Structures are given as C-alpha cells and as structure tokens.
C-alpha cells in the first residue's frame, strides 16, 4: 500500500516538473514568435524530450546498460537520439510549413544573427539562409536531445545506486540480527550446562540448598528464554541475572564467599543494554580462577552505571599456581561476547584485557 502511494506521488511530481518545463519553453518561444507558434513549438519540443526520457529511462538503460551491455547501449542511444532528432525536424517542418510561409519574417529562430538575417532579406537570398539554418537546427536538436538522454541515464543510474545501497543496508542489518541471534543461542546452552552441573553436585550430596538453587535457576531460565529475545533489556534485569549466577556458585561452598567481592553502583537501572553481555566474563572468571582454593582463589566484580548512560564493567580473577587443563569449550563465551560487542557497540565500547602471571582482568566501557 505504501509502495503504491509512493509511486503515485512520484508520478505527480514528474507531471508537475513536466508542466513547469513546458511553461518555461512556451514562454521562451512566445516572446519571440507569438502565442500560436510558441504554443505549438513548445508542445512539440517538450513531447519529444519526454519521449526520449521515458524510452531511455524505462527500456534502454534497464535492458542494456544495467545488463552491462555498454557498447550496445552507447550505439543504440546514439542511433535513437539521431533518429528522433531528424523525425522531430521533419514533423515540425510539415506541421508548420504553411504558417512559416506566411510569416517568413517571424519564422527566423532567435539564434540567427540579426545582421545576417537583414542582409539575407535585402539580397533576397532566403534559400541560402534557410539552408545554413537547417544545418544549425539539426545540430542543435541532436545536442539538445542528447543532453536529455544523458540526463535520464544519470537519473536512472542514481536511482539504481540508491536502491542497491538500500538493499545492501537492509541485508547487512539482517545479517547482524541473524549473527546476534546465533551468538546468543551459543551462550545460553553454555550457561545452562554449568548451572545444571552445580545442581547435580548439590543433589548428589543431598544438600538442603537444592530447592533454592532450582528457584534461582528458574529465574535465570525465564530471563534467558523470554527477556533475551529482544535486542536490549533494562540493565537491572541483567544485574539480577548476574547476581543469581554468582549466588549459584556461592551455594556450592560456603567457604568461598569471602573470596568473592561484588560492587553494583547503578544510577540508571532502566538503561538499555544487550542481554547476556557481561555473563561470559564472569563465567570465565569462575572457570579459571580456581575459586575452590580458599587460600589463593579470588574474584572481584564491579559494575557502574552512570546517569550519563555510561557503563563501566570490570571483573578480575586469580590464576592458579598450577596450570589446569584447559576446557576445549572454555573460549566460546569470551569470543562470542567480543563479536557481539563489535556488532552492537562497534564504535561505542572499549575492551581491555590484562593477562598477567597471577591474575586475569577484563575492563569494559560502553557508551550507549
């Protein structure tokens, strides 16, 4: 419906432009030759120009130029313009011959040299002047119609370029959305896998904390299945998810609570952020800090959200003295979040990773 309305609007604008051009052309000829000749000359000239414009715009360019038949297009366009120019001159001569004969003085076009015209009339050598004028008129018509044809080519190619650019933009947006959905689908099962492992451990030792863990898992699943289907979520929901994630690990062992420090400073809880953006970093910290070592393992998490829509996130963890065997799936979450940052916050984030012998630190700044 919108496309049909847009087409109608385009036709209206084209009609108004043609009408304005017709009036200007009529004004040009009417001042020199009067109403009758000016009207007929303007209508005939503009009609031929519109014909050239439409044929080139709707047939020659799409069928030849856009099909990359450049040589054939150039030859066809030149032959078409040349043919139309001579047809126009012939029709004009036939239609206005009687009128020109009775108004020989006024039939001279404004491009004639006044002195040449006066001398020709005095010498009664009208045929010689008319012969010279016919050559000039033919050349003038070819040039004029060529300009119209080239203008329609430029106009059609501009529309074609804008259409291709718009299609490319839409395609890029669709690709980004598809890739974002794919990356999030990779993140969610990985989180779920770790949480289920924790539940299994608690159920295996018959811990009384199992119902609490199941309830927290229910909240996490609700967030992952429903809230993360949108492009962004309020940051307070993301923080609730992170708190649940950390609490699940704390329930595993009371002895590691002292080794985990968290700081949540949120001045604008309604600020929109991409879902599951910080979770892989915290997951990575729990996986590689060896937090179960109550004497040496530690994790620090900090998240600041300012009223000026700036987010600062930092997570640091210890590194075990003895290198652990690396989980082959351990790098999935970290690499995915890097890709998501580049897709959704390309020029609006700064990610810094500091890897030392004793610690691993991630610092992330986002300007939304």
From TrEMBL:
Keywords: Kinase, Membrane, Transferase, Transmembrane, Transmembrane helix
A molecular function (GO) term: phosphorelay sensor kinase activity
Keyword Ribosomal protein in annotation: no
InterPro entries hit by this protein: Bact_2-comp_sensor_kinase, HATPase_C_sf, Sig_transdc_His_kin_internal
Gene Ontology cellular-component terms listed: membrane
Record's keyword annotation contains Phosphoprotein: no
Coiled coil residues, start to end: none
Bilayer-spanning residue ranges: 12-29, 35-59, 71-91, 138-155
Cited PANTHER family: SENSOR HISTIDINE KINASE YPDA
Name recorded for this polypeptide: Histidine kinase
Species in which this protein is naturally found: Flammeovirga aprica JL-4
């Amino acid at each position: 419906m919108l496309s049909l309305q847009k087409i109608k609007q385009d036709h209206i604008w084209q009609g108004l432009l043609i009408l304005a051009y017709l009036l200007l052309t009529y004004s040009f000829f009417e001042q020199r030759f009067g109403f009758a000749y000016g009207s007929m000359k303007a209508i005939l000239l503009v009609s031929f120009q519109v014909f050239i414009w439409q044929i080139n715009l709707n047939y020659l360019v799409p069928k030849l130029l856009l099909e990359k038949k450049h040589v054939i297009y150039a030859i066809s366009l030149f032959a078409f313009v040349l043919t139309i120019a001579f047809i126009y001159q012939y029709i004009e001569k036939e239609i206005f011959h009687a009128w020109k004969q009775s108004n020989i003085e006024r039939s001279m076009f404004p491009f004639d040299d006044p002195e040449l015209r006066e001398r020709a009339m005095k010498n009664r050598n009208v045929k010689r002047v008319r012969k010279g004028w016919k050559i000039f008129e033919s050349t003038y018509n070819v040039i004029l119609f060529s300009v119209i044809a080239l203008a329609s080519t430029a106009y059609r190619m501009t529309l074609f370029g804008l259409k291709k650019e718009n299609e490319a933009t839409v395609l890029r947006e669709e690709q980004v959305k598809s890739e974002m959905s794919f990356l999030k689908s990779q993140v969610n099962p990985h989180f779920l896998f770790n949480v289920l492992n924790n539940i299994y451990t608690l159920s295996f030792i018959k811990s009384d904390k199992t119902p609490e863990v199941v309830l927290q898992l229910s909240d996490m699943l609700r967030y992952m299945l429903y809230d993360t289907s949108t492009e962004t979520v309020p940051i307070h929901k993301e923080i609730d998810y992170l708190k649940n994630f950390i609490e699940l690990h704390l329930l595993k062992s009371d002895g590691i609570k002292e080794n985990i420090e968290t700081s949540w400073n949120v001045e604008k809880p309604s600020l929109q952020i991409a879902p599951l953006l910080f979770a892989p970093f915290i997951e990575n910290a729990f996986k590689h800090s060896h937090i179960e070592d109550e004497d040496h393992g530690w994790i620090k998490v900090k998240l600041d959200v300012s009223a000026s829509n700036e987010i600062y996130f930092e997570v640091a963890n210890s590194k075990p003295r003895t290198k652990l065997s690396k989980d082959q799936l351990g790098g999935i979450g970290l690499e995915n979040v890097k890709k998501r940052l580049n897709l959704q916050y390309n020029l609006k984030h700064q990610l810094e990773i500091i890897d030392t012998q004793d610690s691993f630190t991630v610092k992330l700044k986002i300007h939304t």
